[in-house]
Here is the input.
Amino acid sequence: MSDGTTPHRKKRIFSGMQPSGEAHLGNYLGALKRWVDMQDEYDCIWCIVDDHAITSGTDPRELPGNVFDLAVSFLAVGLDPERAIIFVQSDVHEHTELAWLFNAVTPVGDLERMTQYKDKASRVESVPAGILNYPILQAADILVYKADAVPVGEDQRQHLELARDVARKFNAAYGDTFPEPAALIGDAGRIRGLDGDAKMSKSIGNTVGILAELDEVWARVRTAVTDPQRVRRTDPGRPEVCNVFSLHKFFSDEETVEDVATQCRAATRGCVECKKILAENIAAAFAPFRERAAHYRAHPEEVKRILDEGAEKARAIASATMAEVRRKMGLRWRDALG
Ligand code: AMP
Ligand code: TRP
Here is the structure.
């Protein structure tokens, strides 16, 4: 709390999301929902990380549309340009510039230890350097704003640790400059996709979009895998292993959740009906988001203006950090020579 004599500075938070189009339930429950709630308490910066996306071989014809669609999702769920900075990474060149400078203090061994790197590298024949260096750019995203904390999912814990190491190493080599950003790991856990097994993810194609209309939500949820042991409608189900049930917990009221569990165990309601209730509740929960999204899709110039203003505010902070970093690293030779 501010005591009235010193200005109260809210903690600064940064987070980023890759542009793969409209957000899905996993993105919403695992990240966006929390981001929206954080806007009251923190000074927030929300970034669409298109410079990161290119490391996974994004189609250049699709990338701009994916950036726009994610921006619409951001605004639709309630990320608020009045209270937070919302922008696209490639609009603020300081991120990539700082990432280059961080190469100087980051051991290759640390990058090679990242599980996400090992996982991605094992799946391609020739590994692009960008996949290895990905966490350096992520560290730059965060540190260029001297963010205090970063809300992320469990899978990003290691990247955050690397960002803290980069801050520490930079400070040791060039003088105290960056705070070590804390990871704020959410408790939503891993939202499973409609296959009932893998993490819900665009790349697997097991998602439900947050802006889908009821018929579309239904078309997706209808395909969801339920308890594999429940083959016939008359077989009793096990809600505790059923992914449809776990989604009900997010979207249905307590009474419905209880009723769904009871009827599943007693085999008095079939999976199809249970899924119908879920689809309806998902579509109803997101109705206000669809309305806002429709507005922004009809007014793309408004989205562009918001992202332009966001980039401008971001640049103001980032360029000040870069001036300090360049000076500390001896990259201001004209000034230094006088
Ligand atoms: P991605 O689209 O995988 O880059 O994820 C963007 C953000 O959404 C990250 O912060 C993730 O933690 C979150 N996220 C994505 N998919 C899921 C999921 N299936 N369960 C929980 N969180 C997720
Ligand atoms: N790597 C993150 C992910 O895949 C996205 C990201 C990029 C990010 N830069 C960031 C997250 C900075 C937090 C802070 O989810």
